[in-house]
Every structure is written in structure tokens, then in C-alpha cells.
Amino acid sequence: MINYSISFDNPSNQYITVKINFTSTETEHEIQLPSWRPGRYELGNFAKNVKSFTIYENNRPLSFQKITKDRWKFTCSKNESISVEYKYYANELNAGSTFLSDNQLYVNPVNCCAYIHGKQNEPFTLLLDIPTNYQIACGLEKNKNTLSGNSFDELADSPLICSPTLKHNTYESNNTLFHIWFQGEVKPQWDKIITDFKKFTDKQIEKFGDFPVKEYHFLIQISPYRTYHGVEHKTSTVIHLGPSIDIFGDVYSDLLGVSSHELYHTWNVKSIRPIEMFPYDFTKENYSELGYLCEGVTTYMGDLMLLKSGVFTIEEYLKEMETQIQKHLDNEGRNNYSVANSSFDTWLDGYVPGAPGRKVSIYTEGCLLTFILDVKIIQNSNGKHSFDDVMRYLFVEFYKKNKGVSKEDYKNTVEKFAKEDLTEFWTKHIDGKVTFLPILEESFEKLGLKLVLNENNNLSSEKLGIKAVFNGTNQTIKVILTDSSAEKTGLSIEDEIVAINSFEVKNELDKWLNYFSNDKINLLIKRKGRFINLDLNHEGNISFVKSKILVNSTNNLLFKKWIS
Ligand SMILES: [Zn+2]
Question: Ligand 1 centre and the CA of 302: distance in Å?
């Protein structure tokens, strides 16, 4: 048994104290703090937040040695009481972090709880030393302020929020209790949210046959500022959303989208898992090319479940799909790197824009490829099967038989329901970088929908081939297309466009471009503190394309099967 405890003295310094007690079984032990967290496939290096690390044997300090950036080794006597203690700096608030404030203790144990090497499969308790008016929201078994579970993986996978201001409600689906917790400023419209959540939950469980856990918790952190992030766990999810004032208004479709996505992960990733992460190795990178299964399928299915369950109308659903297609079109990385390679490289730069045009998004490309495969399966089986059957098969034949999924297993399962050899499709579009735009257009047509690609009527996108954002003073260039007028003019990413023909642009780049559309244009650029004049070269023949999906006819078998 491993006994953890978390306490804090002064919330304003944002340090929590972590204590780990266990009985030594060897004369030498190693303590490891995870170097990454499942859901984010890059190193997190959480040990950078650890201060005052100490080890005691029967209250007597022991000497120890640090042997990697997040691993400690010490010698001791056998069968003695060992206590490991340290402080963890909890000042980051997102869906996968640990954060201490005047009104909450929010912990992702994978950030701040170390494990004893060789004892990952021992049961544990976690005592939370918190004020008496604090409630605890967490997926673990709970007895007063003590949580418990059976392995370090379970602890690492169980975020918790302790606060006197939690708002709570529940609903039931297929004999499973679902909890919704809100932390932060929000006025929950409970009837609305429970009706919608129950619909997509019912539909997801119907598609998989059963739910792999007994209870489930949506832990929703609301911030007054705009933010959007979700992290999956087996018995819970943490969602970080804002601003407070829009949660049940403009941001409500995001709340539904991210919640359905994270719930789908309970099966896909938390149960159906790439073989390379089965089990997770918290000490280093767990490379996998299957990001298009983990995140791609979940991105596609999460939204599709909202359509299938009637939470989203077809128009609302297609808006989300258009966003994915737009991201695909806007990223030239699709010509340079495959989705399989981009998945492998999440460990390198998967969560930042990075070098322009270098890579693609596993979410976007994976989503569109899954859509193509879904339509293929529905068509080839005359509406008898859909992608739901692929996922149910993986759930039953791999997760329930305690097996991880390899790339071959996944391809074979898709082929089984598509009744087609997909080797060429895989080689070209998953392991390769051949465009799948024509197949995407065909897939929409088969459903009675039409993908329309128009020239962008935004002048900076169309004439210059750039995307720029306003930094409060000037427009800053964030994307430049290859062979565009902007590139031929000599513009660079991060250039600020200060003036056009000597007139200050501020946030009106498109209007000034339009105003001078029949004149020669001279741009005043600010580049790393230096001002440069450039004459606009119009010879670029490339511009951003805008996507739109139209509904032609929904009265056909394939469409009906697709949304059922
Ligand atoms: Zn996800």
C-alpha cells in the first residue's frame, strides 16, 4: 500500500506539499515523477516544479541521488517506514495542470505524484488535507477526505478539484451515474445541459454496447477569459472553457463538442489503446503513429455523435466539419508530411504551430480520413455497417481481451468492414502525403452533400496569401503561403504591417488593401524592431481557399445510415 497526502499552507504562494509513505521492500529504491501526461504526447517535465525534495526513514533524513531529470535513487533498510516529501509549484491552470488558488485546489496527480519503481501496481490512498467547507470532485473511490485506488495508473488518471464553490448535478444513462461539476464563475442551465449530455451519452453507449466504468465525472473549469481545452481520463474528463458570460450562449456548442469528444475517449484511447502505450511508460516518449486513430477518430466521432443523437442539427454539424476542412486547406504541411509521421512527431512539436508547412494536425487530418473511411464502409456494405462497427470491434476484440492495437490491427479492422483492400489508401493518404481532397469531395457527394471551395473574399488572404492577427497595435503576419504575392514581396512571418502607402493600417488591413486596390502599394513593415519599405509584388498566384458544405438532398440511404 502506498499512502499519498496533499496539503497546503498558504494558497497565495501556490506550493502544495506532497508526501508519499510506504514500507521499503528493498535496500535500494527509485522514485519517478512522470515526465509526460497521457492525452498530451510531448514531454511535460513536471519535475521543474518540485522543490525541497527529501526522503526519511523512520523520520530520519536519508541521502539520495538524482539519476535522471525526474528520477531519484536512495538506499535504506528493508521493511522500514519511508517517507518522501516535496513541494510542487501549482500555478498553471489548464485542463491537464495542477493549480492552487484562494478558492480551489485542483490537482492532476500525473503532474505532481511520484511513484516508487516496481510498486506501480500496488493499491494506494490519497489523503487531501483541505478546509472543512471544501467539496471534492474526482473519479476515485472516496471516503471522507481520502481517495483510493488500485494502481499508480489509476491515480495518475484521476484529476480532482477541491473547492467550496463547486456546482454539481447528475444524470443517469444505461445504469451509469454521470456527474457534472462546474468550478469558476458560471450560471449552469441544468435542464438544458443535462438533456443534451444525456442524449449524446445514450448514443455513444448504444454504439459501443456498454460503458467501461461504473461512474463518470465531467470536471469543468470555467474561466472569465476565452479558453478551450479538454483532457480525457477513464472515469472523468477535465474541460477548461471560457469566458463565463458565454458558456450557455456562444460557447455552448464548444462545451457540447469538447464534452462529447472527451466522453468518446473513454472508449477510444482510455480503453482502445495503441500497442506502443500499452502500458504507458511515464519515464520517456511513447512514440506512436496512431494519432489518427486516437485523436482523429475521436474528433470525427465526438461531433458526429452530437448529430446522431439529435443534439446538433445537420447545419450545426457541417459548420464544425467546415472548420476542419478549412484547417486542412490552410496548412501547407499537408503537402510535406504525412499524418502518421506527424503523429510520431507530437513528441517533438505537436502542440505548437512550429516551422511553417512542416507537419499536419493528427486531429484535423485524422478526422477527415475517418469521415472518408466511414462513407466507404457505409457504401460498400449497402448501409449495413458504418465506422461505429470498427470502433465497437476494437473495443470488444482488443480492450476486452486486454490487448493494445497496432497499426496493422487498425487497418485490418477497417478493411474487415469496408470489405476492401486499403493498402493503397494507407500508403498514399495515411503514411504518405498524397492529397485526399478529390476523395473527400466524392464522399460528400455520396451522402447528398456538396463541398464547395471558393476564393477567399478576405483581401489579405486572397491578394497577399497571408493570415494576420491584430496584436493591439498592428497586424502581425502568422501564415504566408508558398509562391504567394506576400512571399514574392519579401514578407516574413511575424512581420508587422504598419502602413500602406504611408497610412497607418492598425486593424484595417483589408480595408486599406481594398482602398488602394487600383494603385501601386508600398508596405511599411516592422521586423524585429526595424522598419522596412517593400513594394507589393502582385505576381503571386496562390491564395487561401474557403470551404463550404451545401446540403443537396438528404433523402438517400447512405445519408440516413450516416446520421443514425
Ligand atoms: Zn482528444
Answer: 9
Q: What number of other Cβ atoms are within 10 A of residue 421's Cβ?
A: 10
With helix as H, strand as E and coil as C, how does 236-305 read?
Answer: EEEEEEECHHHCCCCCHHHHHHHHHHHHHHCCECCCECEHHHCCCCCCCCCCCCCHHHHHHHHHHHHHHH
pLDDT at 363 over 80: yes
Ligand 1: centre distance to CA 319 (Å): 19
pTM of the model: 0.96
Spacing, Cα 298 to ligand 1 middle (Å) = 6
Q: How many CB atoms lie within 10 A of CB 26?
A: 12
Q: Tell me how far the alpha carbon of residue 24 lies from the centroid of ligand 1, in angstroms.
A: 39
Which sign does the torsion angle of CA 131, 137, 140, 143 carry?
A: positive
Q: What percent of the chain has pLDDT above 70?
A: 100
Residue 454 one-letter amino acid: N
pLDDT tens-digit readout, 98-127: 999 999 999 999 999 999 999 999 999 999
CA of 41 to the centre of ligand 1 (A): 11
Report the distance separating Cα 276 and Cα 272, nearest Å: 12
Q: How far apart are CA 157 and CA 266, in angstroms?
A: 12
SS3 307: helix
- 301 CA to middle of ligand 1, Å? 11
CA of 276 to the centre of ligand 1 (A): 18
Cα 486 to ligand 1 centroid, rounded to whole Å: 35
**CA atoms within 13 A of residue 13's CA, in its CB half-sphere:** 10
Question: Is the separation of the CB atoms in 463 and 484 below 8 Å?
Answer: no
Tens of pLDDT, residue by residue over 316-348, are 999 999 999 999 999 999 999 999 999 999 999
Using alpha carbons, list the distances in angstroms from residue 308 to 133, 200, 304, 392.
41, 8, 6, 16
Q: Are 162 and 146 in contact (CB under 8 A)?
A: no
**DSSP H/E element including 29:** strand 28-32
The span from the CA of 63 to the CA of 72, in Å, is 10
Q: Which amino acid is at 537?
A: N
